[in-house]
Structures are given as structure tokens and as C-alpha cells.
Amino acid sequence: MSNATTERRYVVRSATSVAGELTVPGDKSISHRALMLGGIAEGQTSISGFLASEDCLATLAGLRALGVFIERPQESEVRVHGVGRSGLKGAARPLDMGNAGTAIRLLTGLLAGQRFDSTLIGDDSLMRRPMERVTTPLSAMGARIDTDGGRPPVRIHGGAALHGIDYALPMASAQVKSALLLAALYAKGTTSVTEPAPTRDHTERMLHGFGVQIASEAGRVSLAGGQRLYGCEIDVPGDFSSAAFFIVAGCLAARQGLTIRNVGVNPTRTGLLQLLQLMGADIELAPHPGEAPEPVADIHVRASTLRGIRVPEALVALAIDEFPVFFIAAAGAEGETVVTGAAELRIKESDRLAVMASGLATLGIECELLADGLRIKGGAMRGGRIDSHGDHRIAMAFTVASLIASEPIEINNVANVATSFPGFPRLARAAGLALED
Ligand code: S3P
Predict the structure, then answer these.
(1) What DSSP designation does 236 have?
(2) Over the chain, what is the mean pLDDT?
């Protein structure tokens, strides 16, 4: 079992402006999926713009352990030599997914229909995360999976004959939807998944690109089992969730403007833009030509006065990973911001509602922790020492807070920033943040 080192920290002095142009690393969700689908495709899949972060490298190592030959001619160039849908081989040891929730949940789906046994584990945070959300519907498909009271280790027994199901997701989760679609490839008959609210649809778009017939309409996606995948080329756009830190930084302090180039702007990911625009943000998108399979744009942001809002619950799933930094925008806004319907934030890499509430209170921001959200009163922010709880997005969000804080912010336990955003400190400094790591 891996454990993140706890001693790494950031000290961020207050800065008053950000500016310039930057490019963020590749999309994490798309990079995980490209490796997995490439692994079970026939022929070669070439991935450019791959996110070489700890999370995606855990997926890459997992697929190698399952017998897939993968080359990396460059840091962000990957060639996956697919073994076909029946070509994976049992791994000699448990597959360690580190901090990566997407990897463990999607691989549980992919491995549920194989002939061999598999065990999936992760770091301390991942070992605490709920897995029954995937094991319950997978069991209904005929899979045989054991967990430790609903948590990893996930022990998948091979040789189960899967059959399609018609499943209504009890929560809005792209990881669960994707795990079921991957298992569905190995199931007899058709699997349909209905979502209570739209979630990221990268799996559906990518399956289509690999030649799989998949039908989506009105919140319901269906796939017939037994289909073959064919290797293809995948160009991974910049990760919107990484761009989000600079989008908020720009809204707070880019008086001359800040541009983030080549960002994935799939509408199932960009709820943050709508939230910030409701607050009065000045954000413009310059779309790149050609939509398929994922829309891409340059994002221009300019500082403006933000006003507190009541977050429409319909936008929560579309901004799910952006709430830590959105709460910093709320702290820098005039008036009150209220988020509800966001209980899922309690079971991410950390309890993001509790950890953000405690960090904001440390910095002097009035904030009320709700069962499923937060109420934040914008106001003057002081400096202080923040416990990130080893959560990458909490660490990066409080780095952005230095644009509105009067004194330095010290953030502990930041090693996990490398799970999603290698090079963050360098880019943050290039944009104008006074970060020492
Ligand atoms: C992800 C889905 C979301 C998100 C996570 C990545 C994915 O998780 O929070 O960072 O790649 O499918 P949930 O499905 O748990 O909401």
C-alpha cells in the first residue's frame, strides 16, 4: 500500500495580480480512459497530450501488470499496444492505484468480466473511499467482488458470466457510469445506465471513437455487450479542472487579462464557468475549430467584481471537482454564496466541505458547514496555516487564495498535487503567484 509523503508544503506570499498566457497539462479523466480503452482495443492507440501525473501513471502501471505493452516515447506521448477485449492477463500482485479514485472504480468495472482474479488497492485516502457504489450494480450484472465493508481492497473473482442490466444511478457519478459501461462490454445483452443529473461523458465519446456503438439520449446511455474496440489516435486536451485554478485566479486578479490555451471545454465539465459568470466574472472562450470528439478552447479571463450567488443544484455535478477553488472565489466575492446538493464532496480525496470550511475559517472567512454544502460570506482574508489533508485540489485552491489574503498562507501535505497537476508550482509562479515549495 502506498502512502503519500506528508512533509512537502507550500508557502504562498500574497500577490496582487496574475497575467500572461499558459497551457495546463492534459486531462486526467481522458488520460485514464485512453489507457484503459487502448489496452483492450485491437491494434495500436497513440495518445498525445497524455497527463503524466501519479494518478494516470498508476493506471498505466496497472495495465502493464495486466499484460499490455505500453511505450512512452516522450513524457506525454503514449503508445498502447492493445491486446483485444479478451487479451488481458491476471496480474501477479495487487494493483496499486495510489490516490486515483477514477482508476480504481473504472478498473473494477473493466476487470469484473475477466477470466482471472484481480485485487485493487491504493493509498490511505483511496482505501477509505466507498466502492459499493460500483460493486452493487456490478454484482447485479453477475460479478463476484469482495470489499472490506464497502472499501478497498477490492477483490474481483474471475470467470463470472456478466449480463446486461438496466440501472438507475442513485448518485450523479461518471466513475460509476463508466465502470458499468466497461463491464457492459463483457456482458451478455444490453446494459443501460440512467443518470439523475448529467455527468462527464468522456467514456461515451471515447468508446464511440474506438468503434463501439453506444446510444445516449435523455440521461440514459445503452451499450450492447460483445463489441470489439479498434485502436485509434487520441489527442488529450488541457484539463479543465487544472485550468480552473487559473480561471479563478484570473477572475480575482488578472487586471491585464490571463489566457489559458488549449483547454477541454466539454459542457459536462465546465459548470464552473457558468457559476463564475453568474457571479459577474469576465470570461471569454475562443473555441478551436473541429469539435470531435472533445471540444477545446482558449479561455480568456479578466478580473472583475464578483458577487455571491446561490449555486443552482443542477450545476453541481458539472463543476464537481472545481468546488475547492470555487469556494475561494466565493470568499473573494461581495456578499454570501450558498452551495447545497453537494454531499458528494464529502467523499472525494478528502471531505472537501469540511476541509475547505476549516481552512477558510483559519483565514478569517465566515463560513457555515452544511450537511450537503457550504455558506460562505465574502470578506477580508488573513494569512495562516492550512491543512490540505493530502488533497491536491485543496492545496491548489488555497494557493490561489493568496491573491486575496493579506499575509502568507502556508499549506502542508502538498505532495499529492502531483497526482493531477505536475508542474503546478512552476506555472503558478509564471502567472504571478508568490509560491515557494
Ligand atoms: C471522474 C468523475 C468524478 C470526479 C473525478 C473524476 C471521472 O467522480 O470527481 O475527479 O474521471 O470519471 P465521481 O464519479 O465520483 O463524481
Answers:
(1) P
(2) 97
